[in-house]
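Recap for those who missed Tuesday's class. We walked through two folding examples back to back. For each one, the amino acid string is listed first and its predicted C-alpha cells come directly after. Nothing is annotated here on purpose, so try labeling regions yourself before you check the end of the notes.
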Amino acid sequence: MSSLNEKNVIAGKASRIILLACLTSVGIGQSFIFTSLPPIGREIGLSDVRISSIITIGAIFFVIGAFLWGGIIARIGRMKSILFGMSSYVITLGFTGFVLQQSLLKSLPAETTYYLLICLRIVFGLGISGIVPAIQTYLVLHGDPNKRSSTIASIGASFSIGMILGPALASFASSISLTAPFYLIAAFAVLLFLLVFLIVKDTTHVKVMIKPKSINWLKHPALPFLIMSTLVILGITGIQQIMGFLLQDRFGWSAVETTTQLGYAMMVMSLMSILVQMVLVPKFELGPTMLIYLGVLFAVIAQVCFITMQSYFGIVLAMGLFGICCGFLFPGVITAQTILAENDEQSRLASVNASLQGVGGASGPILMASLYQINSTIPFVFLGIAYLILFMAFLHYKVRIHHKIA
C-alpha cells in the first residue's frame, strides 16, 4: 500500500510539472509573436497597422474563448480540454509558419497571407484560451487546499516565465530562419501534448455531459476578486505600455537606447515577480489575506517611486517593486476566488477570470496611455489610488474568505 501511495505521489508531481510546462508553453506562444511577426510582416509587404491588427484580433478572440471555455471544461472534462487546446496550438502555429514561409517565397500574395493569418490567429486564440482555466482547475482540485496560494503562484510564475522566454527563443531561432520559431515552438508543444496524453490522469473529474447549472457572476461572492484580478492585469500592461514613453521623455534617449533600457527594466520586473511566486509564496505558505496586504503595500510604494525618483535607477527600482507587488497580488486574489467558489464552479471561475484578465490586458495600455497624454504622473497617481481602493474593498470582503476557510 505504501508503494502504491508513493507511486501516486510521484505521478502527481510529474503531472504538475508537465501541466506547468504547458502553461510556460502558452506564455511562449503568446509572447514570441511580438518579436517574430513584425519583421516578417514588413518583409512580405504588410503595413504596421495590419501586422498589429493580426495580434490584436487574436487577443480579442482569446478573451472571448476564455469566457466560453468554462462551461465546456465542466462538460467534457479538463484532460480533453487541455489536449484540444494543445493540439490547436500545434496546428495553428505550424500552419502560421508554413503560410509565412510561402509568402516569403512569393508563393502567396500579401493580401491572401494577411487574411489567412487572421483566421489562424482566431483559431489559435479560441483554442489555447481553454488551456489555462483547465490547468488551473486541475491543479487547484488535485492540490493541497492548505497550499493553494503556492499552487496559484506556480501557475502565474510558469506563464510569466513563458512570456519572458518567448521573445528570447524567437530571437535565437530566427538566426536559423525567420519562420523557424513557429516550427520549433510547435514541436515543443507536440512533446508536451504527448506527455499530457500519456502521463497526466484526472482522478477527481472526467466529464459531465449535462449542462451545468448557470451562475450569476454579478451576485457571486468571488465577483469583487474577479474585478481585482482585472485591475492587477490592467496595471501590468498599462505600466509596460507607458514605460517606453516615460524613459524617452525623461531622459531624451533615442529609440534604440529606449528599447534597450526598457528591456532591462522589464526584465527586472518580471524576474522579481517570478522570484516572489516561485520562492517566497511557497516557502512561507502565505495565505490570500497576507498576499493581498503585501501586494497593495508594494504597489503603492512602487507608484510613489515612479513619481518621485527621477533617475533611471529609480525607474528600475520602481519596476522591481511593482514586480514584487504583482508576485504577491496575482496568487492572493486568485486564491481568494477559488476559496469562494464551489468545486463544480472552479473551471467556469478560472474561465471568467482569464477572460476578465484579457479585458484588463487590452484596456490597460489604452487607458494608461491616454492618462499619460494629460500628464506623465497621472497614470501612477491613478494606479496608486486604484490599489488603495482595492485594499479598502478587500477589508470589506475578506470576512467571506475567513468564513469559507472556517
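Example two. Treat it independently of the first, because the proteins are unrelated.
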Amino acid sequence: MAVFDEMQAEGGDVRHPYRRFHAWYEQQVPQTLAAKAGEAEGFFRRTGITFNVYGQDEAAERLIPFDLVPRIISGREWAHLAEGIEQRVRGLNAFLDDIYHDQEIVKAGIVPKRLIEGNEAFIPQMVGFRPPGGVYTHIIGVDIVRTAENQFFVLEDNARTPSGVSYMIENRETMMQMFPELFAQNRVRPVETYPRHLRRSLQAVAPPACKGTPRVAVLTPGIHNSAYYEHAFLADQMGVELVEGSDLKLIDDRIAMRTTEGYLPIDVLYRRVDDAYLDPLSFRPDSVLGVPGIMDVYRNGGITIANAPGTGIADDKAIYSYMPAIVEFYTGKPALLENVPTWRCAEADSLAYVLEHLHELVVKEVHGSGGYGMLVGPASSKSECEAFAAKLRERPGNYIAQPTLALSTVPILTESGLAPRHVDLRPFVLVSDQVKIIPGGLTRVALKEGSLVVNSSQGGGTKDTWVLED
C-alpha cells in the first residue's frame, strides 16, 4: 500500500519542512537522544500525565508514550487546513442550531429525520433554546488524516468533550526544555497560549445573568475519570476553579460553587461530564456527578454550559457521513475538507457491500470512540470477521464502514535510528464570537511497525506538532 512520507520525498530528498530538523538530527549522538527519551518519560511520570484504561485490572493508569521527533507542517499546508477546519466548525454549529429549531436540513431532504430524532445524543430539552452567543460547541477536536495522494481528510469530529489538548501543551513544553536550540533554528508557531485563548473564548459567551468579569469553572467527574489530569491541568492553566458536582448548588436561580468566601455564582461552566449525568432532574436521576436544576438555570439564561448539552449528535458517525453536504448547506460553498469515503450500514446496498468486503474495511460503531467496538478488516482473522458480520446483520444501523486508509507516516526515534510510523492529527478549535484554531494539535502515532491504530488506549503514542512560520 503506497503511503505519503511527510519527511522524505520521492527519490530520498528531505521535504522542505523537515530540512532544518534533519540537518540537526544528523549531528546528534544516538546515545544522547536515547537518554533524552528517558528524560521525557521521567518528566511525564513526575508530572502525572497519565490516562486510565477501563476494563483492565492491571496497569490501569498508564503513561502515553511520547516520541521525540516532531511532526512538522509548513505554514502553507496549515493555512489550507485551517481554512477547511474553520468552514467545518461553522457548519457544525449551524447544523446544531438548526436541528434544535426549524430542522431546515431535514425538510430539504439532506439529512434523514430518523438520524436526528431517533438519536440517543439528541436532547429534547434543547429544542427551541439557543445558547448564549448562539454557540453550541465551544471546543472542538477535528481528527485529520493525510493520505497517499498528500490530501487531508476529516476522519471524525469531536464536538462533545474532545480530549488531548493537555498532551499537546505538555509535549511542546517538554521539547522546548530538552531541545531549545531546535526552536532557535525553526520558527515554530506557539501552542502554549491555548489556556489563555480558552479562557478568553469561554468568557466571551457569558450568559445574560453575568455581571462584570465572567467567572469560569471546570466541572470534572472526579479523580477516577480517564481524563482527570487534563481537567485539573486546564483549570490550573486558566486560573479557574476545578469543581465536582458536590461543590455546586442552586442558589437564587444561579449555579454557585463553594469557596472559602462562601458560595459564588458561576457564569460559564466548562463541563467534562457527559450529558446523561449533568442534571439528575432532567436526565439520569441516579447521577451524583452533575448539578440538580442546572438545565433550568441554563435555559433561563443563568449560566453557559460548554459544550452545550446535545452537541454529541455531531459526533455520531452516521451524521459524519453527511458532513460535506451539511457544510455546503449552511455555508453555501463546497466543503474544503472532504470526508473519508463512508458506507452507512443502515442502507441495504451499503450493508451488502460491507459484508462482502469486510476483510478490506474498517467498521466502526456510530457512537463509538477510542478505538473500541471497531473491526480493522485487514488485521482481523476470518473468525473475527465472521463474528463481526453477525453483529452487523443484527444491528446494521449501529455501524458505518470506511476503506483502510494509507495514513501518512512521520519518523519516530527507534534503537536503529529514524523509522516511519502512521499518524493522525487532532487540531483544537475554540468557538465564541470568533473561531480560533490552535496552530498544530495533537499528533497521535501508531508506534508498532505497520499498525494503523493510533489511539493511546490501543498502544499508540504522541509527538509534538510543529506548524512553521513560512
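Answers for example two:
Residues 75-99 form the longest helix (25 residues).
Confidence is low (pLDDT under 50) at residues 54-59.
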